[in-house]
Design brief:
The protein is of the alpha+beta class. 44% of the residues lie in helices and 13% in strands. The radius of gyration is 22 Å and the shape is globular.
Length: 400
């Protein structure tokens, strides 16, 4: 694993740094993710998207809104290492790429499975940020075992009639459209008989109910479909072959470098506060116990970053990280919960206050962050699922 940049890569890194120096302020200043935040802080609201439009425009002009897309579709066609460098430098500057599900998931899927009409209509709109997409995957009885989904799309001439429910749908209350999986042949084996469809969130029969998390945010939603009519032309790929379209691998850099750098930035922020906060707020500021905890977290954050470099080096050799990606996801998300606990401990009993109107303990941010961290080991595949992957694919242990 080479941690250094080749000359051309070092030149590209400097290009990214120069870009951030010129345009970075456009991507800062939006709603943060503090403790006790409401839905307006999730970054999904239309107001938040409008604030970030100038940053999006700057990324689009460079092709960096979709760095892995081929240039023919409006992307940058960057190599794996260049994508890694771009994401690393953006994360170091506290910035992010604002492509969303459209760039990360739907666009690459359309490039492989979509019709020419779908590509011509949808891909430019994704890049321009004209349409915000959400992903209709999980259901009450189909989470980690997604192929057990039961939402039904019955063929009726040139349309499907859609009935069922999705849950944990991120940003659905703010999205314009959804791409989703539905069962079009209930008699087929569960990984078959599924089709991938696109529909509007304002279509008749679609209703959305936000879910309030224990951190008092409304990032997730339930979505209900009652006799929703979806044109067959809105199907992606072949009928009853949607599982394979939905599982299409993209060429995006998946090292998780943004998460690991974000972890280190959070620790730096905590350390700066601990050094400068008034003594009456920071009960354990000089406590040796807290200092030792912080040192452990700092070392673990460096390990998380090395996991990211490992995954990037695998992709750079034209291979796909498998159990290595699960190792990184498991370690980084569980580290996030440890950091939240360490932040809480810094303030002693004040850390349990969750009130933005109180000045103690950063106006409740540690308490809110502690609650928000709970979901990190569930979203994107639970820790249990990651451990199973590591055991069977990494350690070659038999399935129990």
């Amino acid at each position: 694993m080479d941690l250094t940049d080749a000359p051309a890569e070092a030149e590209f890194r400097q290009t990214v740094k120069d870009f951030i120096a010129e345009h970075g302020d456009k991507g800062r200043g939006g709603g943060g993710r503090g403790g006790g935040g409401g839905d307006e802080e999730s970054g999904w609201s239309r107001e938040a998207r409008e604030k970030g439009q100038s940053w999006r425009d700057a990324l689009v002009d460079r092709g960096w809104i979709a760095p892995a897309w081929p240039k023919e579709y409006g992307g940058a066609g960057l190599s794996v290492k260049e994508q890694f460098i771009l994401n690393e430098e953006l994360a170091e500057a506290g910035l992010s790429n604002v492509g969303g599900f459209g760039v990360m998931m739907l666009g690459p899927t359309l490039m492989v499975h979509g019709t020419e009409e779908q590509k011509a209509e949808i891909l430019p709109a994704i890049l321009a940020g004209e349409v915000v997409w959400c992903q209709g995957w999980s259901e009450p009885g189909a989470g980690s075992d997604l192929a057990s989904l039961q939402t039904r799309a019955a063929r009726d001439g040139d349309e499907y009639v859609l009935n069922g429910q999705k849950i944990w749908t991120t940003g659905a209350q703010h999205a314009d459209r959804m791409y989703m999986l539905a069962r079009t042949d209930p008699d087929a084996p569960k990984h078959r008989g599924i089709s991938m469809l696109m529909l509007g969130m304002k279509d008749p029969g679609v209703s959305v109910r936000p879910l309030t998390t224990m951190a008092n945010t409304q990032t997730f939603n339930e979505v209900f479909f009652e006799d929703v009519r979806v044109p067959v032309a809105n199907r992606i790929g072949e009928e009853n072959r949607g599982w394979y379209a939905g599982m299409t691998l993209t060429d995006f850099e998946r090292s998780g470098i943004g998460n690991s750098v974000g972890t280190q930035r959070a620790l730096k922020g905590t350390l700066a506060y601990a050094k400068n906060a008034p003594d009456h707020e920071t009960v354990l500021k000089s406590s040796g116990t807290w200092r030792l905890d912080f040192v452990d977290r700092w070392i673990e954050a460096d390990i998380a970053r090395l996991f990211s470099y490992l995954n990037n080096s695998i992709q750079d050799r034209n291979m796909v990280p498998n159990h290595e990606a699960s190792m990184s996801k498991l370690f980084t998300t569980e580290l996030g919960q440890k950091i939240a606990k360490t932040n809480l401990k810094l303030f002693g009993l004040y850390g349990t206050l969750w009130d933005r109107n109180r000045p103690e303990a950063m106006k409740g941010r540690p308490a809110g962050g502690f609650l928000a961290a709970v979901s990190s080991t569930i979203a994107g595949g639970t820790s249990e699922i990651q451990r199973n992957i590591i055991a069977t694919r990494g350690l070659q242990l038999p399935r129990g």
